Amino acid sequence: MDGTGKPALECGSGPMLKWPNVGGVRYGVPLVLGVVALVVVGHAWGSRGPEAAQPARPPASAAVAAAVPLATPALPSRVVVDDVTIRPSPHPLDGVGERELDALARQMPESLGPVCLGRPNRGRLFNAVQLPSEPGLRVMGDEAHSFGSSETVRALRAAASAVRAEYPGSELLVGDISRARGGYLRPHRSHQLGVDVDLGYFYLPPSKWYQKANADNLDRPRTWALLKALIAEGSVEYVFMDRGIQALLRDYAQSLGEAPEWLDSLFESRARRDTLFRHARGHATHLHVRFLDPAAEKTGRRLQARLRRAGKI
Prior knowledge:
Elements: E1 21-22, E2 25-26, H1 29-48, H2 60-67, H3 98-107, E3 115-119, E4 122-126, E5 129-130, E6 137-139, E7 147-148, H4 150-166, E8 172-174, E9 196-199, H5 220-232, E10 236-240, H6 243-255, H7 260-266, E11 277-278, E12 287-291, H8 294-309
Helix pairs in contact: 4-5, 5-6
């Protein structure tokens, strides 16, 4: 025991080291070890000189590599994307009261904009928009069957323009869409709501409307450009085409280096059926594109009863 009543620290068989009391804090082994460490470091410094504190020099090859700028700068390990708030566009009839809607349905129904009523295979179309022939786009057949919703017509014109910009001289051939008032359009089961469109594939010359596409006549670059342009418009729900044509287009897209995961979400396979492109019999001669027009469909849900009471449908 030391004079404070605390046991002294024993170090082997040597003399006991007591805990000095400095300012009420007791020091023992930590103090001794710290002193020893300082002595060792000082000895190393004195024996090796100031250069021992300098960082180690890189090998000559590393020094040369550091002096020569890289041809391609290193990519960042992470890409930081700022938060973006996406808000849907306001509906044209937002803020219009019930009484005002009743009056518009009776007196000025044309002011209500395009209206989709029902479903693609059992529906009606009101205030339809007619698709015109124009540079890069030609309506085939009966012009009385070239009516669609506003979004359908807008997307078709934009896609045709995009293909023509990439491949000058291209002309998208458009078949049936819907009648001006929608409803049954022979021989189709759908095409009643202004959102279904028959489009021709692009072919190598010589070509004609509604010919069967195959590996020998399909113009893969322009047809793939059309599909990408349609997708970019953001309003395509499905594209129906023969699975044999899908295989040709997928092979072409892969040859361009398109992302496999993205192609898996587009092209139908045995492992996956919930894709954007889907097989349908009879679609080796043309594409069948179904568009979405949420605004026209919402208008239809809100106005169907009013238009019926007003005798407009």
